[in-house]
Amino acid sequence: MATTPIIDEARLEEFMGRFVQDLGAGLTAPLVLLGDKLGLYKAMTDGAPVTPSELAERTGCHERYIREWLCQQAASGYVEYDAAAGTFRLPPEQALALADEQSPAFIAGAFQVLAAIVKDEPQISERFRSGAGFGWHEHDHDLFEGTERFFRPGYLANLVDAWLPALEGVAEKLKAGARVADIGCGHGASTILMAKAYPRSTFVGSDYHDASIEAARRAAERAGVTDRVTFAVASAKEFGGGPFDLVCVFDALHDMGDPVGAARHVRSQLASDGTWMVVEPYANNAIEDNLNPVGRVFYAASTMICTPASLSQDVGAALGAQAGEQQLTRVLGEGGFGRVRRAAQTPFNIVLEARP
User: What is the CA radius of gyration of the chain?
Assistant: First the structure.
């Protein structure tokens, strides 16, 4: 006979409080998208208090919608409300995160990624049942742009100033003139950022997703770096053009079906004294050490994006976004890299330096 569990009312109440917080966060996501797409945050970057009608006039939107949106944003702590004056204000800290796309704190792209994976949920549900994969290219188009906008701030904050200088002798090579490959480059944010910082070096970005490569080429033209940057459609096991002094893979190794095979190919394209920089989501080696707010985000992304992507490819290693340094080091070792060290880290990324 089944026994009736004894309910701890305090624990239930605590969990329901967490649920309300999560529900509010989830429901806030489309409102952040509205603020981003309609230019509502940008229209408030002067930090001056505005009424709903004033913001509606600035943005060409309907006042009644604006008023409701502002109230929700105030309840979320995204904007401030002055009850006496009936005005709303976007503080400079929130403006940096929500309105300035060149800010290292910009977060709107993350909500675009969230919107994409919610739309793709029916497809992932079917994969849970069948065990089949779901390729990167099969996702909603918002994922591709959102990913670039989400990761670019981290690259702006760290790539040139911290990560590349942490690699032995690499920054000096780049300043003098080196050949660089950026594998799984997506829309080319990392490639273009490096090219702007090191004008004497040449860069080749590659990705198997042809639409992303087209977007990367357009971005390179806008940035004025086409004299030293080219982009090609190729998988991690097919890119060519070596030998390269530096090969980079940003937040993509764990998405690959055959990361060991990719590592072997990177090894074949690397100069004898070359370096492979592998940037991955930050993770500890044990599951219990990743059960925290950052791990919560990465496990969710891994379930909906990374693991299905790997399972859609040959081998289907499915490392997941929380693979951890120990497992990543094993993969690199099997691919022919005998020297692997942690060169840098942030709360969101780990940077590994791999050499033959």
Answer: 22
